[in-house]
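Notes from the 1:1 (GR / supervisor)

We went over the backlog. Supervisor wanted to see one worked example end to end before approving the batch request, so GR pasted a single chain during the call. The sequence is below; no edits were made to it. Supervisor asked that the structure be written out right there so they could see what the output format looks like.
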Amino acid sequence: MPQDSLSAGLSRTNSADGSGAPVRSSQVDQQRIARAVREILLAIGEDPDREGLRETPQRVARMYAELFAGLHARPEVHLQKFFTEKYDEIVLVKDISFNSMCEHHLLPFMGKAHIAYLPDGRVVGLSKLARVVEDISRRPQVQERMTEQIADLLMSQLQAKGVAVVIEAVHTCMVIRGVRKPESLCVTSAMRGIFRYNQSTRSEVLALIYGNRT
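Structure output shown during the call:
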């Protein structure tokens, strides 16, 4: 495909966060991605110039700019505005859906995150926890690291007595290739502060997360 066609396809406004704001070329080199995708199509024996694939390199480039937008985000900014409250019981947000990309095969994994913290005078808007998950998930990831990154960020920014993060996800690298086990579910947890060393508090938060399941 001619270079000007690639450039034209990549000049469309694209949003990494659904807001309609364009992804700057300084953040993601979409033209380079498109060239690489074209080479992959050639390498597998396809014709990248046939009608169905003609715009695929540009589509993939725009998609990657969206899926990896978290590389250029600062998730800590969502936690900088907090409210002073005397509340000293567990705050839990369950079932925060996310989609991420496994860095081993560049295949998606998706699931839900459960986030709890025990405040020490600071609380944040509940939506901010979901925004943190969104930023940290939208980058090449492994589930174990993602779980710890969320817990460590919340612990440091909120100065909480404790933080608990549990993530449940389905990995398509185990579903569509390799062992092909569609029913498999990966569960990871990261406990910080009181949730790590106090068994009763740890049991309480896990009961809040899983208590209604049969």
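Supervisor's comment: The chain has eight helices and seven strands.
Batch request approved.
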